């Protein structure tokens, strides 16, 4: 029997320090993160929620108007939580720039910031957002101003990207290739050269023809400067990774009751368990449970057909049909969730019935918080 | 609101994008089936290395080769190709540098991934280059091998960067074979042969991203095609009842009278449940109508595709394809 995911004890426990909301794109991670943060604040904790690319109305409901990359206290008329609520939106570029500015001297920082390769990596490489989300999380933890940090994760198709992208980025930037390609003469890659033979020099030539010698040079300069500054991307990514594995951190996997989203959730759950990362459970988001549970769909449809034939009572016929639709949707969602729980019987789960419209204020978030807590 | 236009009918490359979670792969596959209907040959391409086409058609992962994956009504056929940037780079290097065996070794060592990551634009140039080659390929009779090519493209947040090969090339070498190849890609993508369709849902974020993407495409001189609205729920309430019901006012007495007329004698609890379900339905219909109005600001041909309660399987793809054909897709 699958256990119910109980959020209130989790949010109230002072040992809970970081909650990471993850899942594939479009399942409502950001809203879930915000609703959990709000609920925790109203139950007395000092909370900050780190959102990534929130919907405009959701951002507005938290009083966030622009990316300013620093937590701001949520000030909304009539909102007086027992604890405190701060919110911020991640600005990936700013986070990267700040990281450089903090660790390099002024001159050195300018040199890095104006490097064309840095500009490419910091604004468009696909793993940078994940890397910076981890970096920001590390900073918030280090600041030690909040007793609970709720993190949203970047919108990618695969939930695993959050764990893998920083590693991917560091593999590339820490790699031997960059050194060998940019400075083949200095590379101590004799053994490697022997294995690959002439292929490698051909490859070097080909790559530098394609990407251009200048870019290679820029990349090399950047990596060397970065390396001496931080002891490498890999170490830094590794440290944040360790943070995610430390006690006090919990993962909340969010999924819609859809095959794709649940498949991603499955991969993620398995991965967390393989990495010994603490999983709180699964949020089955935006479900459509039947309210009028005693009326079977077939009976409703038959009655609607009767009414349509007689042409009487169009409102009642419509009500019966929309009820039948809802039963069909609910059945399908139940089937899909049952398949998930059969595969992962140990994962606690909570279904969160959909609000009929998008969240646009704190009341909406509070309502989602109630649904998350199973009220 | 217009549906499929004459202009769209002339396109040979249909790029399909959309916010993550909107079902763009499903719609791309259905579009390929729709375009193949009536005896045409269509190629469906994916570029993100996710093997989503194979999953959708319930078959083993696709190799880096074109394979026939489905038949369409009227003797049409859909072929599929999963382009992998690393394989494309190797193919490319092999063409010009005769790497042979070393290529495989380099790949094992991660060198190829390194090169395509080093210059993020390079990956896109390679992928779009392969797409162009497929679109332009001709058979022995001198006619195009594929009547149409459907590209399951990256999501809206990245699609313009992906297609804007000119920009990507600015970061890359100004000379060499890849330069010549990319000029052909730029010509194709900016021509009337290409249309970029956007898959949307009737929710705030997908609508916003769709409108942003239209503006971005326009700014980059790429041609937005149609808006494909996915997962549209049926509207059951009579139009005049929607706004009243959305405010929570459903005439329970009238509903009960109707139910009794149909021979249903329901308890108070069930009746209340039905009323609550009706209010939720009305609120959702209303917010979807608002979303639809916002979408119409894009002034693009729009096709609505229904929510499929039974989920998406191969049969469902044919169902969606039929809807597209009925909307004029050919």
From TrEMBL, chain A:
Taxonomy, superkingdom? Bacteria
Pfam families tied to this protein: ArsA_ATPase (PF02374)
The residue ranges of the ArsA/GET3 Anion-transporting ATPase-like domain are 16-287
Q: Which organism is it from?
A: Lentzea flava
Q: Which InterPro entries match?
A: ArsA/GET3_ATPase-like, ATPase_ArsA/GET3, P-loop_NTPase
How is this protein named in the record? Answer: Anion transporter
Automatic annotation (TrEMBL), chain B:
Could you tell me which Pfam families the record lists for this protein?
ArsA_ATPase
The record's listing under SUPFAM superfamilies reads: P-loop containing nucleoside triphosphate hydrolases (SSF52540)
**Residues in domain ArsA/GET3 Anion-transporting ATPase-like?**
14-180
Superkingdom of the source? Bacteria
The UniProt entry, under InterPro entries, shows: ArsA/GET3_ATPase-like, ATPase_ArsA/GET3, P-loop_NTPase
Q: What is this protein called?
A: ATPase
